[in-house]
Amino acid sequence: MTVSTDDFHSAIAKGVPGERDFKNGRKMFGAGSCYACHRFQGEGGAVGPDLTSSGGKFSAVDLLETVVDPSKVISDQYSASQFLLDDGTLLVGSVMNLKENEYWVNSDMMKPSTITKVKVDSIEAIRPSQVSMMPTGLLNTMSDKDVLDLLAYLISAGNPDHPLFKN
Predict the structure, then answer these.
(1) What predicted TM-score, i.e. pTM, was given to this entire model?
(2) What kind and span of H or E run contains 82?
(3) What gap in Å lies between CA 154 and CA 22, rounded to an integer?
(4) What residue ranges in the chain does DSSP mark as E strands?
(5) Distance (Å, rounded) from C-alpha 14 to C-alpha 73?
(6) Domain ranges within the chain, ordered by starting residue
(7) Residue 158 vs residues 8, 14, 108, 109, 143: alpha-carbon distances, Å
(8) If one looks up domain 80-128 in CATH, what number appears?
């Protein structure tokens, strides 16, 4: 199943409905591979933004749209670059380091320790990528309940006592 914002827009236009399941929301944060790139409550990766305060900054609709279509708006802080190499290779990734005469580029955010070293003198051009490093389809294996619990988990900043989780 491909999740779209249309599937949930009317349900979450005024917030996340119903009494949500905190434990399931946390589980979905892991199942969606969010921890691979994002920190939340001091846990997870650091190649993407820390999402702990995202619920205080963004609506449920905004959060869902960002996950469903990560390339719609790409922060300069987390944008990728396209490296056109002199052998015709196109490498897309985030610059992790520039060391002496080479760029260290991560081309797979799901494996942040995987680095491709690119010699500066082998680069024909570097331009910004219009595609986010965040993969699409992360919610496609989740049920509607799972997606809503995940959104509630994000909005709550990981607080099990948040009103969204009242029993």
Answers:
(1) 0.84
(2) strand 81-85
(3) 10
(4) 39-40, 43-44, 81-85, 90-99, 102-106, 116-119, 123-128
(5) 22
(6) 5-74+143-165, 80-128
(7) 22, 20, 27, 23, 20
(8) 2.30.30.100
Q: Contact, 57 vs 69, CB < 8 A?
A: no
Using alpha carbons, select from 37, 30, 28, 29 the residue that is nearest to residue 114.
37
Q: For the domain 5-74+143-165, what is the CATH code? A: 1.10.760.10
Kindly state the tokens that stand for 127: 């331009």
Alpha-carbon gap, residue 19 to 3, rounded angstroms? 21
For 12-59, write each residue's pLDDT tens digit: 877 888 899 999 999 999 999 999 889 999 999 888 899 999 999 999
Using pLDDT thresholds of 50, 70 and 90, give the confidence band for residue 149. Answer: very high
Q: In what order do the strands lie in the sheet with 81-85?
A: 116-119, 102-106, 90-99, 81-85, 123-128
Rg over alpha carbons for the chain, rounded to the nearest Å, is 18
For the record, the structure tokens of 73 come out as 């708006």
If you ran DSSP here, which 8-state letter would residue 135 be given?
P
DSSP state of 28: H
